[in-house]
Amino acid sequence: MPSPPRKILHVDMDAFYASVEQRDAPDLRGQPVVVAWRGARSVVCAASYEARKFGVRSAMPAVRAERLCPQAMFVPPDFARYKAVSRQIREIFARHTDLIEPLSLDEAYLDVTITKTDLPSATATAEAIRTAIREETQLTASAGVAPNKFLAKIASDWNKPDGLFVIRPHRVEAFLAPLPVGRLPGVGKVMERRLADLGVATVADLRGLESAALEHHFGRWGRRLHELSLGIDEHPVQPERPTLQISSEDTFEHDLPLEALEPHIRRLAEKTWAGYQREREQHDERIARTVVLKLKTSDFRILTRSLTPSLRPASLTELSDIACDLRSRVEHPPHTRYRLVGVGLSGFVDRDSLAAQTDLFDLSDNAIE
């Protein structure tokens, strides 16, 4: 007998950092708020909905945000305060289920197929969680309810801010059909263009291609695309696990030689470093020691080069420089072209473990002396 559909929630706080700032400072309410340090190298951590009307978005350079919205009120981030509120929200989640998969300080998946309460449905559970968040934190959250994770995430964005949207199992295929393929997880701009070349613009178009045809064009990813077009996603909600690697990668529109990759490596290093900083917000005791450079050649061969320096990368500049230097370890002929580059941080250890290793190295050096 097939197992009954899972009941999955995706709960996403609305403009979280900016909303905390507006809650705690009445003069910011109703104003375009940008959470960021000012400066040429700063990026936007969050933008209030008032600022978003001007096109300001998270991860945007702060100088561009200032150009788009000169009247914006810039507030430096206070991650200790955001973490404290995030813990409050997690405690609310835990009243309903232990199957919680945090994605960041402000969003998480919850499996509420079986709950700790006597609420009659997943929808009722989502409403109870949103109500508790509003009453206990004076903030709002949006939630999606669906039979699996990727649908729940799409649903949580459907009625933002302060909304709830439910995708019922019997409505999955009809709901997905008119959506642009870019709404599917893993389908970025490059993949959208490649699918457009096959006449695919919507999920319904994608569904019209056979799985074998998609696999012919995209390998195993083609099979995954076919499953997503049908609303199939068997990935379970996984309670928090230690991070093994944080990375960012990009596929180029045109293949590039090795010497032309530096600006792309530095751009991706910036994204990876931002992801690492978000990880540190939640797990300050976890330290990354290894820098990874990933390349994919024009004929789809994947290369990785890594380095674990004696001192862990402590800044974006150090990460960028090491990643760029790793190109010297690529032995392919100069005429080789590359279609993808990625920059990662791995080799995570606990801060105490790192300190112990450092002490051990220091003792060894003293013994040699």
From TrEMBL:
SUPFAM superfamilies: DNA/RNA polymerases, Lesion bypass DNA polymerase (Y-family), little finger domain. Its main location: cytoplasm. The record marks Y17 as: Substrate discrimination. The active site is at E107. Pfam families: IMS, IMS_C, IMS_HHH_1. Mg(2+) binds at D12, D106. InterPro entries: DNA/RNA_pol_sf (IPR043502), DNA_pol_Y-fam_lit_finger_sf (IPR036775), DNA_pol_Y-fam_little_finger (IPR017961), DNA_polymerase-Y (IPR050116), DNApol_IV (IPR022880), IMS_HHH_1 (IPR053848), Rev_trsase/Diguanyl_cyclase (IPR043128), UmuC (IPR001126). Keywords: Cytoplasm, DNA damage, DNA repair, DNA replication, DNA-binding, DNA-directed DNA polymerase, Magnesium, Metal-binding, Mutator protein, Nucleotidyltransferase, Transferase. Residues 8-188 form the UmuC domain. Binds 2 magnesium ions per subunit. It is an enzyme of class 2 (transferase). It is found in: Cytoplasm. The keyword Transferase applies. Its EC number is 2.7.7.7. One of its GO terms (molecular function) is DNA-directed DNA polymerase activity. It catalyses: DNA(n) + a 2'-deoxyribonucleoside 5'-triphosphate = DNA(n+1) + diphosphate. Its cofactor is Mg(2+). Monomer. Belongs to the DNA polymerase type-Y family. Poorly processive, error-prone DNA polymerase involved in untargeted mutagenesis. Copies undamaged DNA at stalled replication forks, which arise in vivo from mismatched or misaligned primer ends. These misaligned primers can be extended by PolIV. Exhibits no 3'-5' exonuclease (proofreading) activity. May be involved in translesional synthesis, in conjunction with the beta clamp from PolIII. PANTHER family: DNA POLYMERASE KAPPA (PTHR11076:SF33), DNA REPAIR POLYMERASE UMUC / TRANSFERASE FAMILY MEMBER (PTHR11076). This is DNA polymerase IV. It comes from Lysobacter cavernae. The gene is dinB.
